[in-house]
Amino acid sequence: xxxQKIKKSSGEPDEFEKSVANELLNLEMTSAELxxxxxxxxxxxxxxxxxxTSKAIILxxxxxxxxxxxxxxxxxxxxLEKKFSGKHVLIIGQxxxxxx
Length: 100
Description:
By secondary structure, the protein is of the alpha+beta class. Helix content is about 40%, strand content about 25%. It has helices at about 15-30, 30-40, 65-70, 75-85, and strands at about 45-50, 55-60, 90-95. Helix 1 packs across helix 2 (about 30-40). It is globular, with a radius of gyration of 13 Å. The termini are far apart.
């Protein structure tokens, strides 16, 4: 079911990406204020990065969805940081550069 929250252009999602997509789906199902905005949002990739003393989670969303993500950014990041035990969460728009 969490597969609908991650759409990769190439390959299958790994276990970490599946866990992030599953948490996004859980937030959509349980949170009343985030239910409607999260319905159309999905990620294209997720990475865990070591930042010295702590770790950070980078979520990539398509650039066309970045504006709608920014509307709920503060609430979404706060909830995801709770779910992932205090790790920092960054949401980045993934742009596609087209050739001429």
